[in-house]
Amino acid sequence: MGEPHQSRVYSDLARFYDHTFGRIFVDHEHEIIEQLNLRPGQQVLEVGVGTGISLDAYPPYVKIIGIDPSADMLALAIKKTRENGWSHVDVRRGDALNLEFPDNSVDWVTTFHVMTVVPDPLRMMQEMVRVCKPGGKIVMINHFASDNPLLYSLVWAANPLTRHLGWTTRLRVSDVLDGHKIHVERNERIARFSFHRVVIATKLAV
């Protein structure tokens, strides 16, 4: 899969994202963030922060670092932090496949609608687990392919089209969860007929 953030599709959509795709996703993202047991002084790394539509859902007593490779989207996230005076938020350029954070250094790693966009989602998951502290949490919302063979074959056929738009339809949730030292606490569809799932997992102590 090509690197979508290097595509003009993402650059051209950046200024419209909050009013198009963002409006579809934002309520679910805010709902999940508000359910997390975030404690004062904890650090949250949001991988693929985009335009920063999730940032106002985090409480001000935690430190947020949001990374994204898209300069156009990141500019809008930076603008939000400055306009709102969010001193607890730091947004910067970053690569989901090569996180510039030490092992076992972050209390929470969150990512929303990014896993099927990156060129190597398995590497992204490895990196998120690596930087998460033992006992820390990894939180994902994303659309994943169905385990139903018939439905999977239908979305498989659509993949050549969606690749041009910047994402894959072929990634199953088990593809990214299996093989990691994590305990999955929540893995469920957001709505009954939705391909979008919320996953919350705790990193196990080695």
How large is the radius of gyration?
16 Å
Q: Give me the side-by-side strand order of the main sheet.
A: 3-2-1-4-5-7-6
Number of domains: 1
Query: Rough shape?
Result: globular
Strand segment tally: 7
The level 1 CATH classification is Alpha Beta
Give the fraction of residues assigned to helices. 25-40%
Order of helices and strands: HHEEHEEHEHHEE
Give me the number of helical elements.
6
What is the quaternary state of this protein?
A: single chain
Write down the CATH topology.
Answer: Rossmann fold
For the record, what is the CATH homologous superfamily label?
Vaccinia Virus protein VP39
Q: What would the average pLDDT be, to the nearest integer?
A: 82
What profile does the largest beta sheet have?
7 strands, mixed
SS-derived structural category: alpha/beta
**How much of the residues is beta strand, in percent?**
15-25%
The CATH architecture: 3-Layer(aba) Sandwich
